[in-house]
Structure formats: C-alpha cells, structure tokens
Amino acid sequence: MCGIIGYCGPRRAAPILLEGLKRLEYRGYDSAGIALATPGCTTAGEGADSLGVIKARGKIKDLKALVPPDIAGTTGIGHTRWATHGEVTDANAHPHLDGTGDFAIVHNGVIENFHQLRDHLLAQGVEFHSETDSEVIVHLLARAYQGDLVAALTATVSLLKGTYGIVAMYRGEPGRLVGARNGSPLVLGIGQGEMFLASDTTAILGYTRQVIYLEDGEVVSLTADEYATSDLMNREIRKEVDHISWELESIEKTGFTHFMEKEIYEQPEAIRRALRGRLDREYATGHLGGLNLNSRELLEVGRIVLLAAGTSYHAGMVATYALEELVRVPAVAELASELRYRNPLVERDALYFAASQSGETADTLYAMREVQRKGGRVLGICNVVGSTIARESDGGVYIHSGPEISVASTKAFTSQLAAFYVFALLMGRMRHLSHDQGLRLIEALEAVPGQIEAILAHTEPIRALARRYASCEHFFFLGRGINYPVALEAALKLKEVSYIHAEGYSAAEIKHGPLALITEETPSVFLVPRDGLREKVITSMKEVKARRGPVIALAVEGDQEVARVADEVLYVPEAHHLMYPFLLAVPAQLFAYYCALERGCNVDQPRNLAKSVTVE
Ligand code: AGP
C-alpha cells in the first residue's frame, strides 16, 4: 500500500507532488520518487530529453533534498512506497521508466501475474531495472502505445491480474496524465485550471474539494482543463463529483508532537461527533441513517457478524459483547482475512458489518465481497468518506472521527465503538430493552467524552509508568469479558509503536500456558474495572504476583483492593460496565505512545507498517 499522486496544470508540479506525498506518507514510507515532464532535467546518465525521474530510498524529506528547488515542469507524478516486491532500494523506488525513458508510471497494489508478464517481456528483449512487480506496467504501456495514451493504458491493464492504482505519463503527450484503478483507491481532484490524481483526498485537500472516486475497472485521462473517465471497453463513463468536507487543519498536527498524540486527545470530540444526532431521548433509542433497513428487516436479524482487521477487529469484538447483552442475538467478530477463504456459511437472517477506518483494507473489502457474492447483506462502518467499503457496502455508518493519520489507530477505535453502541441501542430497544434501560445507556454514552477528558487531564502517572517500564521487552495485557478485546488492542498498540513484544489474553487463559512466561522482567497489565468479573481478574493478578511477575492494574478510582494487590495502578473514572472499553483504551494508548517516546521510536510511521493495507 503505497501513496501515488499526479498533477497537471499551470503551476510547477514538483512542490505540489512533494507536499502531496508528504500527506500520503502514512501509506508507505520506505522510498519515494517523482517524474516530471521537464526538458533538460535528468537523473544520473539519462538523456536530456527523457522524462526527469528523481527517486531514492528514505522519507519524503530525503527526496525533497534531491529535488532542485526551482525545477521546472508542470506535469508530474509521484510515489511513496511500502515494499511488497523487491527490497528497499533506489532502483525499486517508483516512478519506473520504460527502455526509451519516454513513459513513466507509479503504481499502488500487487500485480499477481507479473512473473509471466516479465518473462514474456524479457523474451522480447526488454531490460528491467528493478525487482518490482510494478515495472512490467511501464514496459507493457510503451509496447501498447499507438498514439493514444488512454487506449494504451486500457490495453495494458487488461493484461494485469491483481490490484492496482496507476498513474502514467508520456513525454510525447506533455500535459496529459492517465490513471486506472482496480482494488487500490484512486481519486481525481478537479481544480481551477488544474487537475490532480491521488490515492486519497488528504493529498489534494489543500488544492480542491471537488473529487471523483474511481471504481474498479475505470480509466481516467486528464489535462489541466479537462478529464474523461472510461471503462475497460473504452466506453465513456459519466461520474458524480463529490465534495470533501474535512478541514485542512484536521490533517495538520496543530501543535501536537505526533499525530498519534493529537488523535488520542481528539477522542472526546470524535466520540461526540459519532453520537451527534444519533441518540433519541424521547424514544430512548438510537438513530442511524444509511442502514437501508426498515424496522421489520432489523427485527428479522437473527445473527450479527462483524468482519474486520487489526484495531477494527478488536472494536468489533467489543461490539459483540454489547450486542449480545443489549440485543440478545448471537454476535461474532471474524478476522476478515480468514473468513474470506473459509467458504463461509452465509445465513438468511444474518446481518454482516464490515468495519474499517480507512474503508480500503483489502482483507475486509474482499471478505465483504465474498459475503455479498453469497447473498449476504453487509453494512459498512467506516471513517473515510467515499472509501471503497463505504461505497460498495449495502448501507452503513460513518464514524466521523475526522482524518486519522497516525498508523496506530486510536480515535477510530473509540468512535467505532460509539457507532456500534448506537446500533446495539437501536436494535435492543426494538426487542427487550425498556425505555429506562435505553435512557441509562444514552446517559452512559453521553458521559464517555467527559470521562475521557478527565483521563486526558491527568496523564503524568501514565508517562511516569512508561518511564519505569519502557525498557521491558515483553508485556502481557489481560482482561475479561468485554475488556478482553481491549487487552488485545492495548497489546497491539504497544507492539505497533514501541516495538515491544506484547500479548493480549483473557486473564483466565494465562493459567493454561502463558503463565510459564511470567518473570520479574515481564510486566502484566490487568484491565480490572468494577464489573461482574472483577473478582476473577483479581484472582489472576494474585496468580501472577505469586510468580513474582510485576502487576500493573487499570482500575476504577478508589479501588483499594486492587491497589493492595497490584504494584502499579492507573485509575479511570467509575462508569457503566459497558463503557469501560472506551475508558480503558485511552490510558493503554497513552502508555504505548509514551513507551515509544522513551524508546525513541518513529511514533507516527512505525517500521514495516502502513496506515491502509490495500494488499492481501
Ligand atoms: C491499527 O493501529 C493498525 N493500523 C491496523 O491494525 C489497522 O487497524 C488495520 O489495518 C485495519 O485498518 P482499517 O480499520 O482501516 O480497515
């Protein structure tokens, strides 16, 4: 999952490409490059009349240092890479040129049949300069070209198997870009006398709010003043223009050191937005526009299945506990990547949710399509407006978190919970939940942002704890019931940003094996709020203490009994038992963040990861 961008217009393209790539860097950040139609601009050893390519390993700031500040050229393409095929080298960075240097492409995705295509091209004497799957595209494009760049790209992509978002240019058609999409996102940005192509809207938000989301199997051609979209049969397609509502500052750090820190502190407001207009005190129920289901259809739902990956999967797991308690129908969270290839049994009365912050995660997208192919109804729970899962699902809910830039997902987790809880309230009130119970749930939900603000107003104890424990190389996070998935999420956060090995477990499960790993160097963090399983968790804490393992507890203010057992305690406010996943997630996110700082990690761009995983 890389980030790609293209610009054509009256302005110098280089600064626009570099700024766009900087905004796309969370999609992949191991190497980057740009290509410009600039007579006279060369890379080492290339002729003056070829397209100018500047690319290198490293971050966008490293690439920026290589680009002459006044470099000319008003048409260009750019790429920031997350390596899938071929190591992180200058040669494997994009853009890739064909043998003549006249054609250049950038690609996001995986070409599954690139070996066959490469062998075919090698047999025809084509010379390859990289180990990437992507390079076959530019050689095929050059060979398909017969005077029309759009037709050449359409012919080229019809040979490709796999996923792609491609932007291409040709020295012989200066001022024109072409693009194509299958599986990887591609957005066209319509400016005043200029046009943009990008993997997502964050790269072009500073220039235009008018966008067109390309669908799979669509090709686009653009110059500074016009664009045309067509299908793989070269038939013109008319497309709807969408409007981006996000503010530019929402993708800036606005005074925070890292996006992760900013997004942790944005959670109270993000949750308020996720709940806004969705809680109905008169009927003590929830409202969710966009489900495309009437009350009778909702009443016929006999099973709820949540498809997701990573943090969204953990949010889905928490939701299953709330759904079963409030709606009294079986609910299960499935790893999307596993469900897709398990030939799933899709039941008539099952309702599926595809939960995804980015709305582009390939594992979740393909699992959704698999269920839809089998006749299942899949609703999307997404953050990114206009994302593929949002557009292809049978209805759904936006969580309104605002842009989430840090690779480590934080505010999307709690906003997803808020959206799921509104759905559980809506369904529960259609079944056995009384008006009073509904009202109490509404009050508990509305109290969450304030309770999180109280936690965020008092972070020094969490920072101090990180200072004391960030040198540990192994951690356990342990919870029970609805907080077990929060333990999984806490472990994921610590792993992602601080590179400390951490495992999340049900607190009861460690005595069935993991207890063997308990040592004085392996702290165990217990999530032990005031709920029906508190006593059980305290027992597990004592089992770890008995083996001299350090015990850290996340507990409710004033819980002296926990304080007597634990070595360290972080407190959260007292709350409704279903709300503790919100409150316990925040100190866990902050602990991971502070440990990452203590260990000097690149918090927003952890190694080997990317924000939106658009390949399987
Ligand atoms: C979470 O911090 C990670 N970035 C990752 O696990 C992420 O949650 C997963 O890739 C799913 O992403 P999505 O919500 O955009 O589908």
Written account of the structure:
This protein has 616 residues and is of the alpha/beta class. Helix content is 34%, strand content 21%. An eight-stranded antiparallel beta sheet has the order 3-2-4-1-10-9-11-15, with helices on one face. Strands 5-6-7-8-12-13-14 form a seven-stranded antiparallel beta sheet, with helices on one face. A five-stranded parallel beta sheet has the order 19-18-20-21-22, with helices on both faces. The chain is globular. About 1% of the residues have low confidence. The site of 2-deoxy-2-amino glucitol-6-phosphate (AGP) has 15 residues, from helix 9.
Q: Gist?
A:
By secondary structure, this protein is an alpha/beta fold. An 8-stranded antiparallel β-sheet has the order 3-2-4-1-10-9-11-15, covered by helices on one side. It has a 7-stranded antiparallel β-sheet with strand order 5-6-7-8-12-13-14, covered by helices on one side.
Structural class: alpha/beta
- Strand content of the residues, in percent? 15-25%
The hetero compounds bound to this protein are: 2-deoxy-2-amino glucitol-6-phosphate
Q: How would you name the oligomeric state of the polypeptide chains in this document? A: single chain
